[in-house]
Structures are given as structure tokens and as C-alpha cells.
UniProtKB/TrEMBL annotation:
Lineage, broadest ranks: Eukaryota, Fungi, Dikarya, Ascomycota, Pezizomycotina
Keyword Oxidoreductase among record annotations: yes
Domain NAD-dependent epimerase/dehydratase: 8-265
Recorded superkingdom: Eukaryota
Organism: Colletotrichum noveboracense
Regions crossing the membrane: none
UniProt KW keywords: Oxidoreductase
Family statement drawn from the similarity comment of this UniProt entry: Belongs to the NAD(P)-dependent epimerase/dehydratase family. Dihydroflavonol-4-reductase subfamily.
Claim: Oxidoreductase is one of the keywords in the record: yes
Protein name per the record: NAD-dependent epimerase/dehydratase domain-containing protein
Matches recorded under Pfam families: Epimerase
One example GO MF annotation: oxidoreductase activity, acting on the CH-OH group of donors, NAD or NADP as acceptor
Amino acid sequence: MSDNPGTVLITGANGYLGLHVIDQALKRGYNVRGTVRSQKAADKVRATFPNDYGSRLTTISIEDLAKPELFHDAFDQTTTGVIHVASPVHGRVEDNVRDMLNPAIKGATGILEASKLYGGAALKRVVHVSSLAAMLDNSKDPRIGYVYDESDWNPTTFAEAASLKDRAALYLASKALSEKAVWAWMKDKQTNFDLSCLNPALVLGPHLEEIHNLDEITSTSKLLWQLMDAKEIPELQWAGVVDVRDTAAMLVAAVDTPAAGGQRFLLGHHFDWQTAADAAREALPEVKNRVPVGRPGTGKTKALENLYQVDGNKIVEVLGVEYRPLQATVKDTLHQFLEIESRQ
């Protein structure tokens, strides 16, 4: 990597993951151009990075990511990479195609269209944030003993997804169909950039932005708060977790690692609620009476007996970015949430 890596364009800059991606990109030496949908979102980015905003970090308002023409001013001759973090905001779904599938697909391919239209000669890599959901075949759950990796795809076709009644199944299908669409787009087009897709499992970890009330937290990290004052260990409904800080570091590393081009990566390592509870009770003495004991030390064995698992080793080998232990994620996240709770 050169001493002057240029500018990376990050969509969804004001989100839980987006802010962490900005943080990692700045630390890696990049200038950052972040897309937001409103002035309020831009203000959030500014408040989180007051020392860099206006110099190494700028934002641009793009209300509809599915319209490539709106990205005209988002690129310049220094843009070397794009990290597409943003995803459509799904409200009430009355029509699967109109409200879920088309926005997901057009939002994913729209950034590729924009990169082709406005990206200059310096643009070498677009990194698309997909999801483990695109790999899961929920029709086979709990799929005990199976280990998901980069070769797996949710098998739902567009026609099948169009008539799905189950919202969770529709979400999985939308992630797979939108990722398939970006790979198909790349195959059909001539570009001076290539593509990497990163598929995180459930993302947990502390927030970067200032939070005044626990009710403000809408990210997946809030799931860890289920441990607090629970009467028993929650039932495990998914396998695989990745710290938001590791996810961001991997996304940024994928921009400038040549071997990541044309590759698909699963991001995730083992998660179970018992191990998370054990970690919380050990690392945070003040919560010992608020977190259920369960059966300490048995979490991983029990999880392997009840649910599929994930293999997220490929990205570590290619990018050289290691996963931090689940214990660190649990400690840092709950510590932050407890501080917020104490101020309420």
C-alpha cells in the first residue's frame, strides 16, 4: 500500500458499521468521502469525527442509492476504492418485488453503475457488503453439523421470493439475489475496477457515535443486552458473529489487498449465548447478579449439537486481519451500554 492511498467512497457513512469503516479508513491513511441521506446524518458523521471532518473526511447527500446519476459529484480523480455499506431502508412490505427485492438489487448494482460512470482511472476496487444471510439455506435449518463457507448460497429464486410470506425468508433471499446481481453485473460489463464481496455474520460490538439513551440503539449490537436481567440463557437461533471493528478493518483492507479481487468472503466465528454470558460475568463483575449463570463452559459443545456453524477463516488468510475473541466483543459492548444506562 502506498503512502498516499487516495480517497475511499463509503456509502451509508452515518450508520453503525459505516462510522467504524470511516474510522478504519482514516487510520489506514485514506481520505474519506461518505454518502448520507440527510443533513442530520451528515451532522452525526461530523460529530463523531470532529478533528477530520472538512479536511480528510467529507460527506455528500445522496437520497436514492439506486440512481447512479446522483453520484456525479461523489467521485473524483483521487477515488481509489468504494465500500458499499448502505442498504435500502425497508418499511412495510406489501409487495415483495416492489418493496424489498427491486430496491435491494437496484441499490446493489446502482453503485457499480455509478462507479463505471464517474470513477476515474485511479478506481481499482469496489467492496460490496453482503451478508451471511445470502449464504444460508433456511429450508434446511437447523442443519446440525453443517459448516457454511463461501461456496454456499441461499437457493431461493426471484420468482420464489416474489411470493414468500415469511419475512425472514424474504430477507435472506433479498441478500442472495442482490449479491448475485452484482456478480452478474461485473461479468457483463467492462470496467477498470474489480469487485470483492464481504458477507458478515451477526455484527456486534460498541458504537462510535455518542448515545444518550439505550432506546436510541437500533443496531444488531443491542441483541447482547438480552443477557441483562434475563431469567435464563437465551435460546440460540443463529450461528456466527463478527465484531463491528473487525468487520470495518476487513472491509478497508479488502480495498487495497490485490488477492481480495474477485473474491467472496464469509466474516464470522463461533457464537453462543452461554459463552457470551460467561464472558460478561467474568469481565464485568458489576453484572454478575444481572446475567444468568446457566451452565458455564458448556456453550460451544451445546451449540455444535443444535445448530449449523460457520467457517470465516478464508478472509483471515487473505487479508491478515484476525478476529478478536467473543469475550472482548461482549465486554466492550456491554461496558458501553452499562455506561449509557447509568446516565439515563
